[in-house]
Amino acid sequence: MNLQYERITNLCGALNLPFVAQGYGAAVQNAAKQEVAYSDFLEELLKTEMAGRKVRQQNTLTKMAGFPAIKTLEDFNYNFAKGVKKAQIEELAGLGFVPRTENIVLVGPSGVGKTHLAIALGYRAAQAGIKTRFTTAADLMLLLTTAYRQNNMKATLHRAIKAYRLMIIDEVGYVPMNREQANLFFQVIATLYEKSSVIVTSNLPFGQWDTTFAQDTTLTAALLDRLLHHAHVVPIAGESYRLKHQRQAGLIHPVIREQM
Ligand SMILES: Nc1ncnc2c1ncn2[C@@H]1O[C@H](COP(=O)(O)OP(=O)(O)OP(=O)(O)O)[C@@H](O)[C@H]1O
Question: Boundaries of each AAA+ ATPase domain copy (predicted)?
Answer without folding.
Answer: 100-237
